[in-house]
Structure to design on (221 residues):
């Protein structure tokens, strides 16, 4: 059974619209993260949460807003979508922050037209 | 910022042979992870090291925090080893930094 679920797997959006990427982890972890991989670039860290609190934000744009309704959920809301937002977005989790091993979900591939 | 330089970017091996992938770090990292991206795009955890070496089957990884590098050795390569391998390292804070990946192709 998958331990980290991301929904949807594929997402197509029009410029200017808003989408929410879903992430749920069933590993009992306290820390969750979002990463992004654009074409031909390494995975880039976006956010980290610990016990539902934001710990680090490396995203320059306020159009990206994480939402944590439960400890094992960390959704990503993206507003005013742009073509440059096209990427695969990976959710990850670890036991805690501070250097623990991270486990990644299968990713959501977002295409903005 | 923290950088991870991964090499080679691409590697071709014949079945039964071996080679090594390497990641160099521009700062002292606390731990390193190695992943393989499978055909469905999922990241499969291979190793997590805070120091020393670990071995799992035909794979072996080493991490030297002081010398700022990590390696992943593959021996007796098999067709199913083909894929993209990534290292990722962190300073013990809230994130890890990924290398650019090594695309491995194993041929008969």
């Amino acid at each position: 059974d998958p331990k980290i679920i991301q929904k949807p797997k594929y997402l197509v959006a029009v410029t200017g619209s808003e989408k929410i990427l879903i992430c749920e982890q069933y590993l009992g972890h306290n820390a969750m993260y979002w990463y992004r991989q654009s074409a031909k670039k390494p995975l880039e860290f976006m956010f980290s949460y610990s016990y539902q609190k934001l710990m680090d934000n490396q995203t320059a744009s306020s159009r990206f807003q994480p939402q944590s309704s439960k400890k094992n959920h960390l959704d990503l809301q993206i507003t005013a979508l742009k073509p440059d937002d096209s990427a695969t977005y990976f959710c990850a989790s670890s036991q805690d922050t501070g250097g623990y091993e991270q486990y990644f979900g299968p990713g959501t591939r977002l295409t903005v037209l | 910022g923290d950088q991870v330089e991964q090499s080679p970017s691409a590697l071709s091996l014949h079945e039964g042979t071996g080679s090594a992938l390497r990641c160099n770090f521009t700062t002292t990292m606390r731990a390193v992870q190695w992943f393989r991206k499978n055909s469905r795009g999922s990241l499969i955890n291979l190793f997590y090291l805070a120091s020393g070496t670990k071995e799992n089957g035909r794979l072996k990884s080493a991490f030297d925090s002081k010398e700022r590098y990590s390696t992943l050795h593959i021996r007796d390569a098999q067709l199913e080893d083909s894929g993209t391998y990534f290292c990722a390292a962190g300073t013990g804070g809230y994130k890890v930094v990924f290398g650019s990946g090594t695309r491995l192709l194993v041929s008969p």
In short: The longest strand of chain A covers residues 87-94.
